[in-house]
Amino acid sequence: MAILVTGAAGFIGFHCCKRLLERGEDVFGIDNLNDYYPVSLKRDRLDALNDAGGTFRFGQIDFADRFALDYGLAGTDIDRVLHLGAQAGVRYSLENPHAYAQSNLIGHLNMLEFARHRDIGHFVYASSSSVYGANPSVPFRVEDRVDHPLSFYAATKKSNELMSETYAHLYRIAQTGLRFFTVYGPWGRPDMAIWIFTSRILSGQAIPVFNDGNMRRDFTFIDDIVTGVIAALDNPPIDDGLPKAGGSQSPHRLYNIGNHRAERLGRLIDVIEAACGRSAVRDYQPMQPGDVPATYADISVIESELGFKPTTSIDVGVPRFVEWYRGYQGRRTE
Description:
By secondary structure, the chain is α/β, with parallel strands linked by helices. The chain has one domain (2-183, 221-259, 297-311): NAD(P)-binding Rossmann-like Domain (Rossmann fold), CATH 3.40.50. It has 11 helices and 13 strands. It has helices spanning 11-22, 39-50, 66-72, 92-95, 97-118, 152-171, 193-203, 222-234, 265-276, 300-306, 314-333, and strands at 2-6, 26-31, 55-60, 78-83, 122-128, 175-180, 183-184, 206-210, 216-217, 220-221, 252-257, 263-264, 281-285. It has a 7-stranded parallel β-sheet with strand order 3-2-1-4-5-6-11, with helices on both faces. Strand 1 (2-6), helix 1 and strand 2 (26-31) form a beta-alpha-beta unit. Helix 7 packs across helix 11 (314-333).
Protein backbone atom coordinates (compact mmCIF):
# COMPACT_ATOMS: atom_id res chain seq x y z
CA MET A 1 0.00 0.00 0.00
CA ALA A 2 1.28 3.45 -0.93
CA ILE A 3 1.11 6.86 0.69
CA LEU A 4 -0.25 9.46 -1.72
CA VAL A 5 1.50 12.84 -1.45
CA THR A 6 -0.01 15.77 -3.34
CA GLY A 7 2.28 18.67 -4.16
CA ALA A 8 5.18 16.21 -4.25
CA ALA A 9 7.31 18.58 -6.33
CA GLY A 10 6.64 21.44 -3.90
CA PHE A 11 8.82 22.51 -1.01
CA ILE A 12 7.21 20.71 1.93
CA GLY A 13 5.91 17.87 -0.23
CA PHE A 14 9.40 17.12 -1.57
CA HIS A 15 10.92 16.94 1.91
CA CYS A 16 8.09 14.75 3.24
CA CYS A 17 8.44 12.36 0.30
CA LYS A 18 12.17 12.17 0.92
CA ARG A 19 11.74 11.36 4.62
CA LEU A 20 9.09 8.72 3.86
CA LEU A 21 11.28 7.09 1.21
CA GLU A 22 14.24 7.05 3.59
CA ARG A 23 12.26 4.97 6.05
CA GLY A 24 11.15 2.51 3.36
CA GLU A 25 7.65 3.70 2.47
CA ASP A 26 6.04 3.24 -0.93
CA VAL A 27 5.26 6.81 -2.07
CA PHE A 28 3.11 7.93 -4.98
CA GLY A 29 3.56 11.66 -5.59
CA ILE A 30 1.41 13.88 -7.76
CA ASP A 31 1.83 17.50 -8.81
CA ASN A 32 0.52 19.59 -11.70
CA LEU A 33 3.91 21.36 -12.07
CA ASN A 34 2.33 24.77 -12.58
CA ASP A 35 4.48 27.82 -13.29
CA TYR A 36 3.68 29.90 -10.18
CA TYR A 37 7.46 29.74 -9.70
CA PRO A 38 10.10 28.15 -11.99
CA VAL A 39 9.15 24.62 -12.98
CA SER A 40 12.86 23.83 -13.23
CA LEU A 41 13.10 23.92 -9.43
CA LYS A 42 10.19 21.48 -9.14
CA ARG A 43 11.76 19.13 -11.66
CA ASP A 44 15.07 19.30 -9.82
CA ARG A 45 13.29 18.26 -6.63
CA LEU A 46 11.72 15.33 -8.45
CA ASP A 47 15.12 14.30 -9.79
CA ALA A 48 16.43 14.33 -6.22
CA LEU A 49 13.53 12.10 -5.13
CA ASN A 50 14.25 9.64 -7.91
CA ASP A 51 17.82 9.44 -6.61
CA ALA A 52 16.73 9.05 -2.98
CA GLY A 53 16.14 5.30 -3.15
CA GLY A 54 13.00 3.50 -2.10
CA THR A 55 9.86 3.15 -4.17
CA PHE A 56 8.82 6.50 -5.59
CA ARG A 57 6.31 6.90 -8.38
CA PHE A 58 5.23 10.23 -9.81
CA GLY A 59 2.28 11.38 -11.86
CA GLN A 60 1.80 14.84 -13.33
CA ILE A 61 -1.79 15.17 -12.19
CA ASP A 62 -3.89 18.20 -11.31
CA PHE A 63 -6.02 17.12 -8.35
CA ALA A 64 -8.42 19.99 -9.14
CA ASP A 65 -9.40 17.91 -12.20
CA ARG A 66 -11.34 15.04 -10.64
CA PHE A 67 -11.40 12.98 -13.82
CA ALA A 68 -7.63 13.23 -14.23
CA LEU A 69 -7.23 12.37 -10.55
CA ASP A 70 -9.39 9.26 -10.76
CA TYR A 71 -7.81 8.14 -14.03
CA GLY A 72 -4.24 8.78 -12.92
CA LEU A 73 -4.62 6.81 -9.69
CA ALA A 74 -6.80 3.99 -10.99
CA GLY A 75 -5.42 0.65 -9.87
CA THR A 76 -3.06 2.17 -7.29
CA ASP A 77 -3.58 0.97 -3.72
CA ILE A 78 -3.47 3.97 -1.36
CA ASP A 79 -3.97 3.72 2.39
CA ARG A 80 -2.98 7.22 3.57
CA VAL A 81 -3.04 10.65 1.97
CA LEU A 82 -0.72 13.57 2.68
CA HIS A 83 -2.45 16.44 0.91
CA LEU A 84 0.14 19.22 0.72
CA GLY A 85 -0.60 20.53 -2.76
CA ALA A 86 -2.25 23.95 -3.02
CA GLN A 87 -1.95 27.32 -4.66
CA ALA A 88 0.31 29.08 -2.19
CA GLY A 89 1.12 32.73 -1.52
CA VAL A 90 -0.82 35.49 0.21
CA ARG A 91 -0.01 38.33 -2.20
CA TYR A 92 -0.64 36.35 -5.39
CA SER A 93 -4.17 35.59 -4.12
CA LEU A 94 -4.91 39.30 -4.59
CA GLU A 95 -3.92 39.06 -8.25
CA ASN A 96 -5.39 35.70 -9.23
CA PRO A 97 -8.08 34.55 -6.79
CA HIS A 98 -9.55 32.11 -9.31
CA ALA A 99 -6.38 30.00 -9.15
CA TYR A 100 -6.96 29.63 -5.41
CA ALA A 101 -10.62 28.75 -5.82
CA GLN A 102 -9.70 26.07 -8.35
CA SER A 103 -6.78 24.49 -6.51
CA ASN A 104 -7.61 25.08 -2.86
CA LEU A 105 -11.40 24.75 -2.88
CA ILE A 106 -12.32 22.44 -5.76
CA GLY A 107 -9.03 20.58 -5.35
CA HIS A 108 -9.60 19.99 -1.63
CA LEU A 109 -13.13 18.74 -2.33
CA ASN A 110 -11.78 16.33 -4.95
CA MET A 111 -9.23 14.98 -2.49
CA LEU A 112 -11.89 14.52 0.20
CA GLU A 113 -14.04 12.62 -2.29
CA PHE A 114 -11.03 10.53 -3.22
CA ALA A 115 -10.46 9.72 0.45
CA ARG A 116 -14.14 8.85 0.94
CA HIS A 117 -14.44 6.51 -2.02
CA ARG A 118 -11.05 4.89 -1.47
CA ASP A 119 -11.69 4.32 2.25
CA ILE A 120 -8.45 6.11 3.18
CA GLY A 121 -7.24 5.41 6.71
CA HIS A 122 -5.90 8.89 7.42
CA PHE A 123 -6.11 12.16 5.49
CA VAL A 124 -3.54 14.76 6.55
CA TYR A 125 -3.79 18.16 4.89
CA ALA A 126 -2.03 21.52 4.86
CA SER A 127 -3.75 24.48 6.43
CA SER A 128 -1.96 27.73 7.29
CA SER A 129 -1.23 30.17 10.07
CA SER A 130 -2.87 32.73 7.76
CA VAL A 131 -6.27 31.59 9.03
CA TYR A 132 -5.65 33.55 12.24
CA GLY A 133 -5.77 36.87 10.40
CA ALA A 134 -4.93 39.83 12.63
CA ASN A 135 -5.73 37.91 15.80
CA PRO A 136 -4.46 40.21 18.60
CA SER A 137 -3.97 37.33 21.02
CA VAL A 138 -0.53 35.74 20.71
CA PRO A 139 0.64 33.07 20.61
CA PHE A 140 -2.10 31.75 18.33
CA ARG A 141 -3.97 28.76 19.78
CA VAL A 142 -5.94 26.19 17.81
CA GLU A 143 -8.91 27.07 20.03
CA ASP A 144 -8.93 30.70 18.81
CA ARG A 145 -11.69 31.92 16.50
CA VAL A 146 -10.52 32.25 12.89
CA ASP A 147 -13.47 34.02 11.34
CA HIS A 148 -11.70 37.09 9.93
CA PRO A 149 -9.11 36.13 7.28
CA LEU A 150 -7.18 39.01 5.72
CA SER A 151 -6.51 37.40 2.33
CA PHE A 152 -8.37 35.15 -0.06
CA TYR A 153 -5.61 32.56 0.40
CA ALA A 154 -6.38 32.49 4.13
CA ALA A 155 -10.10 32.23 3.38
CA THR A 156 -9.51 29.14 1.23
CA LYS A 157 -7.49 27.50 4.01
CA LYS A 158 -10.22 28.21 6.56
CA SER A 159 -12.68 26.75 4.06
CA ASN A 160 -10.54 23.60 3.79
CA GLU A 161 -10.84 23.10 7.54
CA LEU A 162 -14.62 23.47 7.39
CA MET A 163 -14.91 21.08 4.45
CA SER A 164 -12.77 18.50 6.24
CA GLU A 165 -14.87 18.84 9.39
CA THR A 166 -18.01 18.11 7.37
CA TYR A 167 -16.48 15.00 5.77
CA ALA A 168 -15.18 13.77 9.11
CA HIS A 169 -18.69 14.12 10.54
CA LEU A 170 -20.58 12.61 7.61
CA TYR A 171 -18.19 9.85 6.56
CA ARG A 172 -16.00 9.39 9.68
CA ILE A 173 -12.80 9.98 7.70
CA ALA A 174 -9.86 10.38 10.10
CA GLN A 175 -8.28 13.74 9.31
CA THR A 176 -5.54 16.04 10.61
CA GLY A 177 -5.18 19.66 9.50
CA LEU A 178 -1.78 21.30 9.99
CA ARG A 179 -1.52 25.06 10.32
CA PHE A 180 2.00 25.74 9.05
CA PHE A 181 3.96 28.75 10.30
CA THR A 182 6.47 30.30 7.82
CA VAL A 183 8.42 27.25 6.74
CA TYR A 184 11.92 27.74 5.29
CA GLY A 185 15.02 25.74 4.43
CA PRO A 186 16.91 24.10 1.53
CA TRP A 187 14.83 23.57 -1.63
CA GLY A 188 12.47 26.33 -0.46
CA ARG A 189 10.17 28.55 -2.52
CA PRO A 190 11.54 31.56 -4.45
CA ASP A 191 8.57 33.72 -3.40
CA MET A 192 9.41 33.40 0.31
CA ALA A 193 11.25 36.14 2.19
CA ILE A 194 14.38 34.16 3.07
CA TRP A 195 14.98 33.19 -0.57
CA ILE A 196 14.29 36.73 -1.81
CA PHE A 197 16.55 38.32 0.80
CA THR A 198 19.39 35.87 0.21
CA SER A 199 19.21 36.25 -3.57
CA ARG A 200 19.19 40.05 -3.46
CA ILE A 201 21.86 40.41 -0.79
CA LEU A 202 24.24 38.16 -2.75
CA SER A 203 23.57 40.10 -5.96
CA GLY A 204 23.82 43.54 -4.33
CA GLN A 205 20.16 44.45 -4.84
CA ALA A 206 17.95 46.19 -2.29
CA ILE A 207 15.59 44.03 -0.26
CA PRO A 208 11.97 45.04 0.45
CA VAL A 209 11.33 45.37 4.19
CA PHE A 210 7.60 45.68 4.73
CA ASN A 211 5.85 47.53 7.57
CA ASP A 212 9.18 49.33 8.16
CA GLY A 213 10.56 46.09 9.56
CA ASN A 214 7.95 45.83 12.32
CA MET A 215 7.03 42.27 11.42
CA ARG A 216 7.46 39.12 13.48
CA ARG A 217 7.31 35.61 12.07
CA ASP A 218 7.48 32.14 13.57
CA PHE A 219 10.16 30.89 11.15
CA THR A 220 10.18 27.09 11.20
CA PHE A 221 12.96 25.00 9.68
CA ILE A 222 11.87 22.35 7.19
CA ASP A 223 13.44 19.39 9.02
CA ASP A 224 11.40 20.21 12.13
CA ILE A 225 8.25 20.60 10.05
CA VAL A 226 8.71 17.22 8.37
CA THR A 227 9.18 15.52 11.73
CA GLY A 228 5.85 16.95 12.86
CA VAL A 229 4.05 16.07 9.64
CA ILE A 230 5.20 12.45 9.73
CA ALA A 231 4.29 12.15 13.42
CA ALA A 232 0.79 13.37 12.57
CA LEU A 233 0.51 10.99 9.61
CA ASP A 234 1.51 8.04 11.81
CA ASN A 235 -1.07 8.83 14.50
CA PRO A 236 -4.60 9.28 13.14
CA PRO A 237 -7.27 10.67 15.47
CA ILE A 238 -9.54 8.09 17.07
CA ASP A 239 -13.28 8.19 16.34
CA ASP A 240 -14.34 8.05 19.98
CA GLY A 241 -16.73 11.02 20.16
CA LEU A 242 -14.40 12.96 22.45
CA PRO A 243 -13.29 16.53 21.62
CA LYS A 244 -10.15 16.74 19.50
CA ALA A 245 -7.60 19.53 19.11
CA GLY A 246 -9.55 22.36 17.53
CA GLY A 247 -12.84 21.30 19.13
CA SER A 248 -14.23 18.66 16.77
CA GLN A 249 -16.04 15.62 18.19
CA SER A 250 -15.57 13.87 14.86
CA PRO A 251 -12.25 12.19 13.95
CA HIS A 252 -10.78 15.53 12.85
CA ARG A 253 -8.13 17.55 14.65
CA LEU A 254 -6.17 20.72 14.00
CA TYR A 255 -2.60 21.44 15.03
CA ASN A 256 -0.35 24.47 14.92
CA ILE A 257 3.02 23.40 13.58
CA GLY A 258 5.60 26.13 14.07
CA ASN A 259 8.73 27.08 15.95
CA HIS A 260 6.99 28.74 18.94
CA ARG A 261 9.49 31.59 18.60
CA ALA A 262 8.44 34.80 16.83
CA GLU A 263 11.48 36.53 15.38
CA ARG A 264 11.72 40.17 14.32
CA LEU A 265 12.18 40.65 10.59
CA GLY A 266 15.22 42.82 11.29
CA ARG A 267 16.94 40.04 13.23
CA LEU A 268 16.25 37.58 10.40
CA ILE A 269 17.95 39.96 7.98
CA ASP A 270 20.90 40.29 10.36
CA VAL A 271 21.33 36.50 10.37
CA ILE A 272 21.09 36.29 6.56
CA GLU A 273 23.66 39.07 6.21
CA ALA A 274 26.06 37.18 8.47
CA ALA A 275 25.55 33.94 6.50
CA CYS A 276 26.05 35.75 3.19
CA GLY A 277 29.06 37.70 4.41
CA ARG A 278 27.73 41.03 3.18
CA SER A 279 25.29 43.75 4.22
CA ALA A 280 21.80 44.28 2.84
CA VAL A 281 20.44 47.45 1.29
CA ARG A 282 17.12 47.73 3.10
CA ASP A 283 14.20 49.32 1.22
CA TYR A 284 11.60 50.06 3.90
CA GLN A 285 8.02 49.81 2.64
CA PRO A 286 4.51 49.92 4.18
CA MET A 287 2.51 46.85 5.14
CA GLN A 288 1.26 44.91 2.13
CA PRO A 289 -2.46 44.09 1.72
CA GLY A 290 -3.26 40.68 3.16
CA ASP A 291 -0.19 40.58 5.42
CA VAL A 292 -0.35 40.29 9.19
CA PRO A 293 2.10 41.99 11.55
CA ALA A 294 2.95 38.89 13.57
CA THR A 295 2.57 35.12 13.61
CA TYR A 296 3.41 33.10 16.69
CA ALA A 297 2.37 29.49 17.28
CA ASP A 298 1.20 27.92 20.49
CA ILE A 299 2.34 24.33 19.85
CA SER A 300 1.47 22.92 23.26
CA VAL A 301 -1.22 20.60 21.86
CA ILE A 302 0.88 18.94 19.16
CA GLU A 303 3.77 18.78 21.62
CA SER A 304 1.72 16.97 24.26
CA GLU A 305 -0.08 14.65 21.83
CA LEU A 306 2.67 13.85 19.31
CA GLY A 307 5.87 14.90 21.05
CA PHE A 308 6.58 17.59 18.45
CA LYS A 309 9.33 19.93 19.63
CA PRO A 310 11.25 21.98 17.04
CA THR A 311 14.95 22.39 17.75
CA THR A 312 16.31 24.52 14.90
CA SER A 313 16.76 28.26 15.52
CA ILE A 314 17.24 30.71 12.66
CA ASP A 315 20.88 31.00 13.74
CA VAL A 316 21.29 27.38 12.62
CA GLY A 317 18.67 27.07 9.88
CA VAL A 318 19.37 30.23 7.91
CA PRO A 319 23.07 29.45 7.28
CA ARG A 320 22.02 25.98 6.13
CA PHE A 321 19.63 27.55 3.63
CA VAL A 322 22.24 30.06 2.39
CA GLU A 323 24.79 27.26 1.94
CA TRP A 324 22.27 25.22 -0.06
CA TYR A 325 21.23 28.27 -2.10
CA ARG A 326 24.79 29.05 -3.13
CA GLY A 327 25.41 25.46 -4.14
CA TYR A 328 22.13 25.16 -6.04
CA GLN A 329 22.62 28.40 -7.96
CA GLY A 330 26.17 27.31 -8.78
CA ARG A 331 24.91 24.04 -10.26
CA ARG A 332 22.21 25.84 -12.24
CA THR A 333 24.77 28.14 -13.89
CA GLU A 334 27.33 25.44 -14.76
